[in-house]
């Protein structure tokens, strides 16, 4: 399993997930840069993602939705802030109301930092989400963010092996 550590800190308002992959940094980067590959691993099993718009470029907006086993769609977006291919990118991550991808003001938004570092065994990925306040972090924790993210990230090994 790629996920090796999960930490949340309500005082710092952060959720940090660390994963190790037996693949070079450039290959792990490709998973996040290519919408079709990302669709295969972004949602947890049973909740596939469909990326409508996706470009890892500063100032771009990625839009996507995940579909539940019952067919319900959950919409979200990224506002990409910085990109340092192939070692990482930063973005604001938010929930959207519907297919218009209008931000859902009732749901937490987070600042995300994704970093990919070469190791002797391949790549260490560090995913850090920072929320505006402890209540927002607690809300996504209560929604199952740790479990869902871990299940999603753990799918990447199969994609890298294919």
UniProtKB/TrEMBL annotation:
Pfam families: AHSA1 (PF08327). Residues 22-160 form the Activator of Hsp90 ATPase homologue 1/2-like C-terminal domain. InterPro entries: ASHA1/2-like_C, START-like_dom_sf. Belongs to the AHA1 family. This is SRPBCC domain-containing protein. It comes from Nocardioides renjunii. The lineage of its organism: Bacteria, Bacillati, Actinomycetota, Actinomycetes, Propionibacteriales.
């Amino acid at each position: 399993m790629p996920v090796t550590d999960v930490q949340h800190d309500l005082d710092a308002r952060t959720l940090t997930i660390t994963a190790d992959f037996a693949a070079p940094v450039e290959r792990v980067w490709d998973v996040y840069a290519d919408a079709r590959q990302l669709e295969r691993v972004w949602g947890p099993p049973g909740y596939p993602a469909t990326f409508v718009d996706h470009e890892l470029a500063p100032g771009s907006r990625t839009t996507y939705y995940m579909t539940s086993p019952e067919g319900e769609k959950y919409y979200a977006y990224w506002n990409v802030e910085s990109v340092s291919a192939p070692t990482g990118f930063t973005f604001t991550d938010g929930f959207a109301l519907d297919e218009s991808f209008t931000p859902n003001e009732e749901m937490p938004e987070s600042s995300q930092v994704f970093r990919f570092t070469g190791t002797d065994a391949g790549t260490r990925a560090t995913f850090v989400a920072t929320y505006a306040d402890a209540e927002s972090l607690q809300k996504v924790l209560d929604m199952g963010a740790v479990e869902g993210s871990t299940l999603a990230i753990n799918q990447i090994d199969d994609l890298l092996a294919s």
